[in-house]
From TrEMBL:
It catalyses: 2 reduced [2Fe-2S]-[ferredoxin] + NADP(+) + H(+) = 2 oxidized [2Fe-2S]-[ferredoxin] + NADPH. InterPro entries: FAD/NAD-bd_sf, FAD/NAD-binding_dom, Fd--NADP_Rdtase_type_2, Ferredoxin-NADP_redctase_2. Residues 8-293 form the FAD/NAD(P)-binding domain. It is an enzyme of class 1 (oxidoreductase). Keywords: FAD, Flavoprotein, Monooxygenase, NADP, Oxidoreductase. This is Ferredoxin--NADP reductase. GO terms for molecular function: ferredoxin-NADP+ reductase activity; flavin adenine dinucleotide binding; monooxygenase activity; NADP binding. Binds 1 FAD per subunit. Belongs to the ferredoxin--NADP reductase type 2 family. Its cofactor is FAD. The keyword Nucleotidyltransferase does not apply.
Amino acid sequence: AAAPIETDAVIVGAGPVGLFAVFELGLVDIKAHVIDILDKPGGQCAELYPEKPIYDIPALPIVTGQELTERLMEQIKPFGAELHLGERIDSLQRTADDRFLLRTDAGTEFLCKIVIIAAGGGSFTPKRPPLAGIEAFEGNSVLYSVRRMETLKDKRVLIVGGGDSALDWTLSLQPLAKSLTLLHRRDDFRAAPHSVEKMRMLVETGDVRLMIGQVTALHGSGNQLEAATVNTKNGEEKIDVDVMLPFFGLTMKLGPVADWGLQLNENLIPVDTEKFETSEKGIFAVGDINTYPGKLKLILSGFHEVALMAQQAHKYVYPGKKLLFQYTTSSSSLQKKLGVS
Ligand code: FAD
């Protein structure tokens, strides 16, 4: 296995609050890596409401979830924080030398001095189709995301769903799959119109099979899927498949954060309001995941929290070093870090 990535801080979650934490930590010379299970930054803003306007971000009278994410990405650029997307932090342990070792589900390891949990409502988790015995195939022949496309080469692929993920993967996998069936419960797709159009063309040329209906049963042995029973308006049909990709959307579940030995209060992490530190020294919790008297789950509250958190973080990363309070407007040293002077 590769050696752990050594850094000052690991930020769990690339939602708006995790992203702004990069900025506040950067101003006090703390380098961070950010990890998110989603394949894009922005957390709830990017996943749940990219096109909806937000009206209560100070000085931005109206900004969509996607725009806010893009602006935060631009604002944190000077600090060069590395984003690790599509990976979930599964474990967090304190090491013998009082650092922290974190590990993702993809096996990436980080060794750091402080941890900032900005996990929002928890990790986004794919919704599981209600099919008996599906667990046995998960991870092998039932996949909720595609890590490496070549694993699907020459396979008989069944994609289920009618949104952007279902359509995007239909278009990307069709050229390399042995056969590809797209199954949706209605002949009406929520995906981008140009993807739907392309898919319809592939159906016309016979390169994609489109079925309208629902999977009612899975068949196979061990973890290997062999067939699926599909219920259509013409009755039941059993089709041969090697891999099924269900795209039924995502829900937020607290997930592995619950197993890190932190004190929890109804799935939230209690913190103080001076440092936003958890029951464990050196582990902070900011944004929607934390709780304290008067907490509001607002983006602007999270922004405030990370500014105060960074003050305490500096004490751990640079013990004994005094931190001067400075304005970005007038401090040439802050401006240098921001690359503006
Ligand atoms: P999130 O945005 O939830 O991001 C957390 C990220 O952490 C997620 O991407 C998740 O995948 C990741 N994560 C969690 N656990 C792990 C793990 N173990 N490993 C890797 N990654 C992990 N707020 C406002 O202020 N104004 C509004 O107008 C507003 N409108 C909203 C409208 C809607 C429809 C919704 C749903 C929310 C709205 N909110 C609004 C709330 C706002 O979106 C949240 O307060 C904000 O997203 C919280 O940011 P966060 O960074 O704390 O968490």
